[in-house]
Amino acid sequence: MDDLVWFLYARLDDDARAARSALGREWLFGAGWLIAEGPPGGSERPREVCEIADEPTGRYIARQNPARVLRGGAALKRIVDEYAETARRRDTAVGRIKERGERASQEDLDAWDRSQYQAGILEGPLRLLALTYADHPDYRDTWRP
After folding, report:
1. pLDDT computed for residue 81 by the predictor
2. Which residues, including other chains, have CB under 8 Å from residue 26's CB and lie 6 or more apart?
3. In sequence order, which ranges of the chain are alpha helices (DSSP H)?
4. What is the pLDDT of residues 74-112, one digit of tens each?
């Protein structure tokens, strides 16, 4: 699952980079026109306008503004972080159990059991999140839920 975690971090970082490049604009749609106002560009209020005849498409594009993409990515990254931390606790407990063998403490066994259970719960949502990027060349079919 480490590969899946790193794959998701990389994709979420890609999304955040793209969103940050368009940050600072106000995205509006009305009367068949998509308007992006504000920086980047340097002048006072540069404006880019694009005609979009299909109203649902225009409203959708305006709704997916960069600030929203960044908020969504940050929330999804917290889910990946939670899994990564749980997996780290599980692996640490496994290491202690292997090292101590028959002398493994109940605390180590409980830590492994708890983190193994939590990681199992979080693995499903990670696989579902990765489906968003199934068209990426680094996506692996073994990650499909």
Report:
1. 96
2. 36, 37, 38, 65
3. 2-21, 55-63, 66-100, 106-131
4. 999 999 999 999 999 988 988 988 888 888 889 888 988
The contacts of residue 33 (CB under 8 Å, 6+ apart) are: 49, 50, 51, 52, 58
Rounded distance, CA 48 to CA 110, Å?
Answer: 58
> SS3 for 87?
helix
pTM above 0.85, yes or no: no
Interatomic CA distance for residues 41 and 95, integer angstroms = 54
pLDDT digits (tens, 9 = 90+) for 15-52: 999 988 887 777 888 888 888 877 655 555 567 788 88
CB distance 83 to 119 below 8 Å: yes
Spatial CA neighbour of 18 closest among 58, 59, 69: 69
At 117, list the tokens: 């259970």
Q: How many CB atoms lie within 10 A of CB 83?
A: 22
Measure the CA–CA gap between 73 and 28, rounded to whole angstroms. Answer: 22
